[in-house]
Amino acid sequence: MPVLSKNKGSKPASLELDLRGRRADEVLAELDKYLNDAFVARLSRVRIIHGYATGTVRQVVREILESHPLVKSFEPGDKEEGGDGVTIAYL
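Request: output the structure for the sequence above.
Response:
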C-alpha cells in the first residue's frame, strides 16, 4: 500500500518518469514512489516512459497501474508521445 508523504525540501514531481534501461524487478518501488509524489503534487496526468524492447517493463508497469489505488485509468501514449513505448496514467 502506498504511503502518502511529502518530504520537505524535495524537488517537485515531474510530469514523466523514464524507466528505460531498468530491470523489471526495479520498477515496482520506483513507480510506486513516483505515483505517490505525483499524487501529492496534485498531478492529474503523468507519462511513464518504458520503451519498447522486449515489452517486459511495459507489462510490469501496466500491471502495477491496473491495481494501484491512486490510478484512475491508463492508456498507451499517442503516436507523437511515444506510442506503445509510453503509458499515460490518470490520477
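The radius of gyration is 12 Å.
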